Amino acid sequence: MIKKIRLLLEYNTYCLWLYDENDEIVDNDNPPEWDDDKELTDAFMAVSNLYDTFFVDNGKEFRYCGCPNEKTRAELEARIKAAVAILQQKNNGKYIIQNDIAF
Description:
The chain has helices spanning 38-52, 70-91, and strands spanning 2-7, 16-20, 25-27, 55-57, 62-64, 96-99.
């Protein structure tokens, strides 16, 4: 049984990381019971997709450029808050949610 969901931004990955009762990574996806949950997936994909724009990755160069402006930062923060709210509503105390997304 999975005990923890960790929210973490990594380039080109989904934001949810699932951990078992031994605190070992099980998967980088929605928990199995929400595997087909379009609302949750779409919300976190919107976060991941926006975050990925903070990088240059053109085959010759890979680097983190950072957030381009305050408007984009506010948009990312709003997307994260909306996605977390959906997750918390669905979770209803089932998993520990560890939010390691920093601004």
